[in-house]
Design brief:
single chain; 103 residues; mainly alpha; 2 helices; 2 strands
């Protein structure tokens, strides 16, 4: 028979504090969360102000209506959002098996 060894694993947990202590910690965290939100909003605004680049290459895309040019993908709209998906070689079955990443 084997020997059963008891191993004491200490779990590193935050301290237990009073309701007032918890509220003070929450207010400190809220200040940081709001700063992060403002920074993320500022970065998003900067991204929207990025300069544009003219697309000179004649791309062709497969669409539900057959082959179309980049201009035809817009279908009269002023903006077009395009998402890329990456496939590992040998992987088939869009969209369930693609690595979609972040838009």
């Amino acid at each position: 028979m084997g020997t059963l060894m008891m191993i004491d694993h200490k779990i590193n947990t935050p301290p237990v504090v009073s309701p007032e202590g918890w509220e003070a910690a929450r207010r400190q965290l809220l200040v940081k969360e709001k700063a992060l939100t403002r920074a993320r909003d500022a970065l998003a605004a900067e991204r929207r102000r990025m300069p544009w680049m003219r697309v000179e290459k004649n791309y062709t895309f497969d669409s539900p209506n057959g082959k179309v040019s980049l201009h035809e993908l817009f279908e009269g709209r002023c903006q077009l959002v395009i998402y890329r998906a990456f496939f590992e070689p040998g992987v088939f079955g869009w969209p369930e098996h693609a690595c979609r990443g972040a838009p």
